Amino acid sequence: MNQICYMPGILINRWLAVRLEFVGTCIIFFVSVLALVALITTGVDAALVGLVLSYALNTTSALVRFGRSVVSDLVR
């Protein structure tokens, strides 16, 4: 009985993690393109661009952690 409930929970967790990582990757891509455009056109400081990209990279891990916590709460 435990496996009947446990396996779908694991599958849902992985499915959601892949989707959230894709969303995070899209965010990183758009942020990097916009940062590159801003760097070229307005001459924004490169350190600021690096800071923005580091925050965008943290977004992906935060999304995955949030998704795992939501799914684990639903499965329990």
Give the tally of β-strands: 0
Choose one word for the global shape. rod-shaped
Strand content: under 5%
Instruction: Please estimate the helix content.
Output: over 70%
The helix count comes to 2
Order of helix and strand elements from N to C terminus: HH
Mean pLDDT: 84
Q: Biggest sheet, open or closed, and with what strands and sense?
A: none
What is the gyration radius calculated from CA atoms?
18 Å
Q: How many domain modules?
A: 1
Distance between the termini: 14 Å
Poorly predicted runs of 5 or more residues = none
Structural class: mainly alpha
Task: Looking at this protein, list some descriptive labels.
92% helix; 2 helices; 76 residues; mainly alpha
Q: Summarize this, please?
A:
With 76 residues, the chain is mostly helical. The protein is built from 2 helices and no strands.
Outline the secondary-structure elements.
Layout: H1 2-41, H2 46-75
